[in-house]
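Repro case for the chain-ordering regression, as requested:
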Amino acid sequence: MTEVLFFIEVVVAGLLAGTMYSLVALGFVLIYKASSTFNFAQGAMVFFAVLAFVGFMELGLPFSLAFVVTVLLMVLVGFCTERMVLNPLMNQSEDTLLMATIGLGFVLEGLAQAAWGVEVRRLDLGIGDFPIEWIIDVFGLFVSALDLTAGIVAAVLIIGLALIFKYTRMGLGLRAVADDPGAASSIGIPLKNIMLLVWSAAGVVALVAGMMWGARAGVQFALVDLALKALPVLIIGGFSSIPGAIIGGLIIGATEKVLEVYLGPFFGGAIEGWAPYVLAIFFLLYRPEGLFGEKIIRRV
Amino acid sequence: MTIERNFPIGEPVLEVKNISLRFGGVKAITDSSFSVLKHEIKAIIGPNGAGKSSLLNCINGIYQPQEGSIAFKGEVLGKITPNLIAQKGISRTFQNLALFKRMSVLDNILVGRRLHMNSNFLQVAFQLPKARSEEKVNHGLQKKVELGRALATEADFLMLDEPMAGMNVEEKREMCRFILKVNDEIGTTMVLIEHDMGVVMDISDNVVVLDYGKIIADGPPDEVRANQEVIDAYLGVSHD
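-- result from build under test --
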């Protein structure tokens, strides 16, 4: 019985960690939907956002105010990106945009460190990374409070965004822009506003993801690389699907934890680091469009 | 033959004055002027590469001509983006189909309408296929959907870039009827680029002829057809 309980515990911990991957992946999906480009700057945005948030807190702003100010800052970043990067590169190839996002990433990393310094910071959200007692009492499972909070926040954010894009005029506009920007603007959809909205949304998602990861691992430069973990999530879920980002994250989270616990000892541990990529390679071999992505059809 | 029209042709609604458009050293349009009258159907014709689509793109705000001005309903447009043009009541279709492929046929039109209705009801009411626009929907219908989307924005000025490209005779005839019907019933002013001279002569009130980025004729179909310069442009002329 304890064996089964332990397995469930591992899976639950994995799923909750997976929602945090989903959060990061969500930022990529938003941009990919609007610009058909992989936003290499997403990791830098996570770092930039959470570092600014911590910085504002250190300046003495209360939690909520610091959050609002950082959200505004991320909207500003979105605005500047639209004006200075996307707009001048309009109608350029997707490869050009991709390169531009790499550059944008460097700029954001540099700006963040220039403004707030390079040392690792602690972020205390007031939620400890320890098991919740009533869950131990009722289910006999050890579930971290921080994991659970992160899971819930991620779920709310993801469901909210999915609903917005499915059912609002703005969302319909976004889908139209994703399909054919020229046609979309010809029927009166303001491209600039859509881009601004999407990049701002990606910025806010980056902030939330950064706060969750920062609370766990410290606010530091390594957060940029963490965004790479979103890559296998996207390969499994599909680059343009919000549900795909969720499911992909959950699959990666659960798989890596289970593998770590049960297979880890045979490899000398730390297989969490590479197991997701192995999984991603299998997907690339057998289902390259991901679980929810569009089938890639090329006419010859 | 004069037929009573529900919307008689009126004053100029669009005035293009002396516009020139260059791409680097390439002159796409040179010092061209013409106007479009309210409620008329105006065709733009000319050999390939004459600058027809560029002209539409200037009116549409995709390109900004280096010289000259474009005025719509008495207002000079200046530097303007396509989405603002659409809000002023000018809509268009594209030479190559530009439908939202991931949406159903109905949603494509609804996006134009910018409305959110219960699409199932409309689907049944109009018997529209539920298929995504790129699947199972023939080319002729796709062209019509694009036109429907442009109309759904409630534009009163429509620009059609080769609305009948790739259609067979039957589909062309139906499209012509549709264009005439829209013009007759809701009075939409239309500018269309078309290569099928039979179609152009049949449905347009006036024809503008472009050659090498210059307007060489502008007038009723019969007049234009008899114009020597137009005949030369189309058939070629020996330079000796």
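Ordering looks correct now. The mean pLDDT of chain A is 84.
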